[in-house]
Amino acid sequence: MNDEQPFFQHDFLLLYDDIGLDECSWKKPHGNQFRVLTFSNSKERDISVTQWALIRYLKDNGPATFSDVADYWQVEKPAITPIAQKLAAREMISILSGADKRQKIMCLSEKGEALHKTIMEATDPFLEELMEGISQEERDAAATVLEKLIMNLKRRG
Q: Is 132 helix (H, G, I), strand (E, B) or coil?
């Protein structure tokens, strides 16, 4: 995938795979194909979609508190804790104390950075195949529509 292509493609597949779109039986095989390609080729890459989403969030946004991620995902802060703990146990992220000892800051470790790179490289050919025959203009339009849909969903609360 070249730098000119919007990276929303990875986000779209997370959305596609993670928020119930796989309830339609005709969509399910595609979501499963992505999950198998991305997350089951080795023990090292055996992570859940939500763990991958946290790794992506930290890669894209840098160090963040549990509250930052919870606000972004529009979930309660305790929902982030088990995801972060599992990644920390595998040394994919570090959890540090903030200025206030109650505040915890997550950051991607070298191992997490390496996993991010590996998964992105593994999924790029699949995404290229998905985007075959779709012009850059159409991809940009789709990214714009997805961004607007997300904003509308966030406004609904």
A: coil
Report CA Rg, the chain.
Answer: 16
- For 7-61, what is the HEC assignment? CHHHHHHHHHHHCCHHHCCCCHHHHHHHHHHHHCCCCCCCCCHHHHHHHHHHHHH
Tens digits of residue pLDDT in 121-153: 877 787 788 889 999 899 889 888 888 887 888
Please classify residue 93 by burial: count the beta carbons closer than 10 Å to its beta carbon, then call 0-12 exposed, 13-18 middle and 19+ buried: buried
Cβ distance 116 to 62 under 8 Å? no
Instruction: HSE, CB side, 13 Å, CA atoms: give it for residue 121.
Output: 8
N-terminal to C-terminal alpha carbon distance within the chain: 34
The token duo for 33 is 């194909």
Is residue 44 within 8 A of residue 115, CB to CB? The reply is yes
